[in-house]
Design a protein that fits this description.
single chain, 102 residues, mainly alpha, 1 helix
């Protein structure tokens, strides 16, 4: 009977050691999986951030191009008005000179 009890204790201790070892392995596996999952999440977040940054840059370039074209058009219109005004002033000056000569 004592021998059976001792054997039962040894069996229980062995099962406890096996359970402890299995728990260690499982914990290590869980840590490794968590680490890999975190790395994957980080990678995805970085990719999304890069994509958003690229989209923002393209939008900013588009806006800048539109503003540049508007500025060029406005400058062209203003230059045309100034040329017309200069032509009128030149014509008036030439007529004034001609009148003085006559």
């Amino acid at each position: 009977m004592v021998k059976d009890t001792i054997q039962a204790i040894k069996d229980t201790e062995q099962r406890a050691e096996e359970m402890t070892e299995n728990a260690r392995k499982e914990a290590a596996e869980i840590r490794e999986n968590a680490k890999n999952e975190a790395a994957e999440i980080e990678k995805n977040m970085i990719a999304k951030a890069r994509k958003r940054a690229q989209e923002a840059l393209q939008e900013a370039r588009k806006d800048a191009d539109q503003k540049l074209e508007a500025a060029k058009q406005a400058a062209g219109e203003e230059a045309s008005l100034l040329r017309d005004k200069a032509g009128e002033l030149e014509k008036a000056a030439v007529e004034g000179v001609i009148q003085k000569l006559l």
